[in-house]
Amino acid sequence: MAAFCPRRFSFLLLAVFVIFSALQVLAADEDRQVYIVYMGNLVDGDQSPSSYHFSMLQEVVDRSYLTAEEQEKLARHEEVVSVFPSTTYHPQTTRSWDFMGLAENVHRNPTVESDIIIGVIDTGIWPESESFNDKGSSPPPKKWKGACEGGKNFTCNNKLIGARYYNSYSPTDDSARDKMGHGTHTASTAAGNYVKDASFYGIAKGTARGGVPSARIAAYKVCYPSVGCREADILAAFDDAIADGVDIITISIGEAMPTQFTNDSIAIGAFHASQNGILVVQSAGNKGGQKTTIASVVPWIFTVAASTTDRGIITKAELGNGSILNGKGVNSFSLNGTSYPLAYGEDISHECGKQAAQNCESGCLETSLVKGKIVLCNTYKGIMEAYRVGAVGSVALSDYITDVSFILPIAASCLHEQDFHVVHSYFGSTKFPKVVILTSESGRNLDAPLVASFSSRGPNTILPDILKPDVTAPGIEILAAFSPLASPSDNDDDDRSVNYTILSGTSMACPHVAESSRLYKIISSPLVTVCNQISSYDNR
Ligand SMILES: *[C@@H]1O[C@H](CO)[C@@H](O)[C@H](O)[C@H]1NC(C)=O
Ligand SMILES: *[C@@H]1O[C@H](CO)[C@@H](O)[C@H](O)[C@H]1NC(C)=O
Ligand SMILES: *[C@@H]1O[C@H](CO)[C@@H](O)[C@H](O)[C@H]1NC(C)=O
Ligand SMILES: *[C@@H]1O[C@H](CO)[C@@H](O)[C@H](O)[C@H]1NC(C)=O
Ligand SMILES: *[C@@H]1O[C@H](CO)[C@@H](O)[C@H](O)[C@H]1NC(C)=O
């Protein structure tokens, strides 16, 4: 059992106390587990909150560490609402505005809109991104009380008006700079400025812009690579955002399963935000398919599902006999129209049996045998194995998510079962099967909007009378700004560095609504598809 650490304790106290009353206690475990003691609203009194909390703790704790008994004793204290361990949450990873009826030339009210401050609680932000240029922005509105405390070499402007970071678990990362890309993407989706000719290597090219391009952004970094997003940091970020004077908080972060509201930092933070007139918008989660997969069920949070837009990204595979198949995947690699031999299964594996080799299971393929070839794989995951051994490309069965194109680290086309069978029979029908994979292009999705397969579904497991999610918004193949330090295919070996990328998830849908819900009052047009019915979507 490690010692109770007063220095850290008082630091954390200060970090969390401005608006509401919660204190963090370092418990006695070896891993320095942080506990959050939630005490509801801050009560006015003679004593400063920190000294009051300290004396309350001294009452309970008579040694230099906390025992389980003492945690219970704290929890029984009449002023304490709950005591719970700080756990880890995760980020739930430009046609979309036009599709929602918010065309570029829509009548806007820039004086009102530029007063809107959006707090983004996420992985940080890339301040130099072109999407955060402050062309046309006046100085921050008077109600703004925040600060630009993004660390060294971090500058704000009249678009990105504030930044803070909470690194109690990653002290070496002392900057609000985004290394993961997720926060830059969500912030620019909510309020990025106009950027002409933005694209991912020419794919999805157009003018990138946020929902309200003149709104201001305040970034609160709580998520770190390989750490995730710690609840104690999330709570501190909510507290600051409320004090800083934001109008809306968008948080594309969540837990796998909902927990009791008094034990949930996002529920607590959002409660105090709403008491202060701030709307909190949260992504529903990406655990779709089954019923009750939803993680965001709190009534005072606006919960957002993800749906398709009318633009879909496709990657064509052209067989040697002339058949062209439309696959999924975002492919920026040009094969210059050249066909390559198609290889399959047992011919390119020494280690594995026929089926494992045909699936391109991890470790099955031989580098020397796939040189200059495109590999046919029975599974989506097989693309990663084809990439590992240096294949030119891959044609794979889309057995994973079939309604989304993800960025892949090699030229690859992911086919529906029917089209995959065509390739399979073509492979068997000729001695020298060949294929070429084309770079991605945009196609029209005539059946949009459809709720994404991955988007979490209700009903609400904690309060069944309140249907969740509340709305759906575009969350598939969204082009927005990115951190040039992050890998666009989420693969450490893929060292492409981009300023704009295409991501999918309820995370991407959430910032769309952050703006729309506010705009609703301003231009009163129907902006989001109200879809409480999704709650019963899978309920048959
Ligand atoms: C919430 O925290 C309390 C301690 O305050 C604990 O007893 C309870 O089990 C927690 N509930 C859940 C659902 O985690
Ligand atoms: C500041 O950050 C940018 C972006 O990472 C980098 O290019 C630049 O070299 C940094 N400047 C200093 C002085 O560290
Ligand atoms: C395609 O052509 C470009 C430009 O000539 C070249 O850089 C690239 O390596 C070629 N790609 C392949 C796969 O041959
Ligand atoms: C190519 O081969 C496949 C499989 O045999 C077949 O289904 C398809 O019709 C052929 N395409 C053309 C253009 O002949
Ligand atoms: C990304 O933006 C920077 C300026 O912030 C620019 O120097 C760089 O060339 C851009 N990279 C790409 C790939 O466009």
Q: How does the SSE layout of this entry go?
A:
Layout: H1 6-16, E1 20-26, E2 34-41, H2 49-60, H3 68-76, E3 82-85, E4 88-91, H4 96-99, H5 110-113, E5 117-122, E6 160-165, H6 182-191, E7 195-200, E8 203-208, E9 216-221, E10 223-224, E11 228-230, H7 231-244, E12 248-251, E13 253-254, H8 265-275, E14 279-283, E15 302-307, E16 311-319, E17 324-327, E18 340-344, H9 354-358, H10 367-370, E19 374-377, H11 382-388, E20 393-397, E21 411-415, H12 417-429, E22 434-437, E23 441-444, E24 471-474, E25 478-481, E26 500-503, H13 506-523, E27 529-530, H14 534-537
Question: What this model shows, in words?
Answer:
With 540 residues, the protein is α/β, with parallel strands linked by helices. Helix content is 23%, strand content 24%. It contains 14 helices and 27 strands. Strands 6-9-5-12-14-15-24-27 form an 8-stranded mixed beta sheet, with helices on both faces. Strands 16, 17, 18, 19, 20, 21, 22 and 23 form an 8-stranded mixed beta sheet that branches. Strands 10-11-4-13 form a 4-stranded antiparallel beta sheet. The longest helix has 18 residues. It binds 2-acetamido-2-deoxy-beta-D-glucopyranose (NAG) (5 copies). The site of one 2-acetamido-2-deoxy-beta-D-glucopyranose has 3 residues, from loops. GO terms for molecular function: serine-type endopeptidase activity. This is Subtilisin-like protease SBT4.3.
